[in-house]
Design a protein that fits this description.
Bound molecules: tetrahydrodeoxyuridine
Helix content: 25-40%
Structural class: alpha+beta
Strand content: 25-35%
Distance between the termini: 45 Å
Shape: globular
Order of helices and strands: HEEHEHEEH
CATH architecture: 3-Layer(aba) Sandwich
């Protein structure tokens, strides 16, 4: 199944009673496995957990630590951009040249690299002693 199909399918499971904005995400890790996530909101924090964060958590829980490709989809006029927090989460597990595809249900797509999505990202290497 393509990442687009996987993200489209999991989007149907999004729990978004506050925003009414359903998002689906699918990623392929460097092992070749596909992990999916949808946004899950709650009354205390109505923005909830993003779809991308869910897919990354599923990957980490399965023991994979490197993202090869990301796809995120929502029903909006323009391709849905990952929030700032998700950009940092993607950076943690992806090389800077990994491609993130942002998409709409209607078929529009925008591709950006991780470096383009979060230039100047704070990384673990910044905490290294020199
Ligand atoms: N959302 C995502 O899941 N991913 C994004 O890339 C953008 C926003 C969710 C969070 C929240 O449940 C809803 O969309 C509205 O912000």
């Amino acid at each position: 199944m393509s990442l687009r199909d996987a993200a489209t399918k999991v989007r149907e499971n999004a729990y978004a009673p506050y925003s009414h904005f359903k998002v689906g995400a699918a990623l392929r890790s460097t092992s070749g496995a596909v992990f999916v996530g949808c946004n899950v909101e709650n009354a205390a924090y109505p923005e909830g957990t993003c779809a991308e964060a869910g897919a990354i958590a599923a990957m980490a829980a399965a023991g994979d630590t490197e993202i090869a490709e990301v796809y995120v989809i929502a029903d909006c006029p323009n391709p849905v951009p990952p929030c700032g927090g998700c950009r940092q989460k993607i950076v943690e597990f992806a090389r800077s040249d990994v491609v993130v595809t942002m998409a709409t249900v209607s078929g529009r797509e925008l591709q950006m690299t991780v470096a383009d999505l979060l230039p100047g990202a704070f990384k673990r290497s910044h905490m290294d002693d020199d």
